[in-house]
Amino acid sequence: MLSFFRRIINSKVGVVVTLAGLIVIALMFGLTDITGLTGGSGTTGSGDSLASVDGTKIGSNDIRSRAQRELEGYRQQNPTLDMAQYVAGGGVDGTLNRMIDTIALERFGHKQGMFVSDRLVDGRIASIPSLQGPDGKFSQDAYNRALKQAHQTDAALRADMKQGMIAQLLVTPLQADTPQVAKALAQTYAGLLLEKRHAQIAMIPAAALATGPAPTDAQLAAFYKTNAARYSLAERRVIRYATISGKALTTPVTVSDAEIAKAYQTQIASFRAVQRRTVARVIVGDAATANALAAKIKAGTPIDQAARAAGLESATMTALEKSAIAAQTSPAFADAVFAAAKGSVIGPVKGTLGYVVGRVESIDDRGEIPLAQAKTQLTEQLTTQKKNDQLRKIHDALDDAISNHATFDQLVSQQKLTAQVSPPVLASGADPAQPDAKVPPAAKAIVDAGFANQPGDTPQLVPVDADSFAVISTAKVFPSAPPPLAEIRAAVTRDFTMERAAKAARDVAKKVMDAANKGTPIAQAVAAAGVKLPPVQPLDKTRAELTANPNGVPAPLALLFSMAPHTAKIIAAPNNAGWFVLWLDRIDKGDARGRPDIVAATQADIGKATGGEYIQQFVKAVRGTVGVKTDAAALAKLKAALIGQETTDQP
After folding, report:
1. Burial (0-12, 13-18, 19+ Cβ within 10 Å), 164
2. Are residues 144 and 125 in contact, defined by beta-carbon separation less than 8 angstroms?
3. Which of 222, 311, 465, 542 has the most Cβ atoms closer than 10 angstroms to its Cβ?
4. pLDDT in tens, 568-581
């Protein structure tokens, strides 16, 4: 489950990914709780010191905050991820190490005379698309909203951006050019991809073995305790929310005749008489070609086919008025189009860029729409506008109250809203107590917001759909934990008996393996096992087939490529289904001398890996140069606090 972010956390080039995206992530997603770093010593954040970099201490509170925000970011990819899984997957270690690396690179850069100007930071902020207004220019309002959402200050963000930009400038050149790898070396590794192994595999299914007597209460309790993680429910949250919808507004909306008349005059251009044409046209460079093309179209050849035959392309002007067609072709062509009937071929007519040949595809003429006829449309439009205005006023009032530190209860009371409380739900919105119930799409936005917040955080306003929004507050968090044994006794009993059968299957598999390693053919060893088992199957695979599997390499195949010829080994099947016995007959060595494509691809792959190693070694050297110290005990204390910081009550 955690592999998707383990790959980032443990990646040798992860520091580049982090640094390159830091300045955008901080604003767009609020994943990092930025604290300014000034001078050559001091402390980032507060709480116990987890590490020091060139005299700058990194506080536990800062890493705690960053870990919370990174977890929220990872939940965008895996909504069921909780803090316990994040910590177990190395998330906190990765957060601390990335911060150490970034500070160390900044300190090293300063010692080499590298500094980032305020003007460069200004330009980088202004270039972020999400901070640009409708006119495409930097919006101070959008920037302020992003800072507020990310709980940042302008000064702190700019300090962190400077830090990240220096680090990025230092490490990016190390992977800018892929290191050249000798062809002979790549050819050797490429040969491994073509290696083929011929083997036999036997399955010893647990279902073929006796499960034994029913387990006792003590045995079940011990098994449940040992395997608690197997039965753990993902983190669940109770969310308080109140929805505000235009359909539920109680204040009546009325639209007067005067308002309708005013709207009609304001939108008079939409109701005037209009003539539109849809025309397919081709622009031709010379008159002779244009005349030949027009004649061919008049003879019945579709205009697009006739154009392609002449090495040209046709284009369609859809439902345009006369002035728009004239602007794209010429006034004379537009006059001819509007004087012609549907299906008529126009031209050639002299245009701005040559000669225009066209065909009238459709005619869309509409007379003037009088006020009486437009009244129903305008009434609906104005009613919607007034409801939206009411919603906007409520939204703005709630937003102002939240800015003044109003609680969820106060918000509900002030606006006379109906508060609701969700059951303990997963990040997907599903209720484990009702697994078959469907999650309404509107509920997903509320759940997402609830999982982005923590108990005690400021209430949030979230859009639910085009006609409504909600105010939410996270009421309670239930960390990942197994339900009581009594509730899942049947499942635990099933797993207990399956595991007992799987252990019996292992004993049989080991017996078969030992016999095969002593010279007994594997098929004969299986037949002599004393249990009715599936027949032995051949297994022939190349290493390239394994690396091409997008779902990863199955464990038996990974074992196969670590074995010596004429040996047998055993490995467990997934989910206590039994055991496999593998016998390797022979290995056909691969030869990549006749496969330049594989050699070239291997050269590129090794080059990329080498670039990552360069970065890793450079950052390690920088750490040693500036001086880094870490406190393992303080880090372990923080991890324990993160896992146990929320209530462990079960509903």
Report:
1. buried
2. no
3. 542
4. 999 999 888 899 99
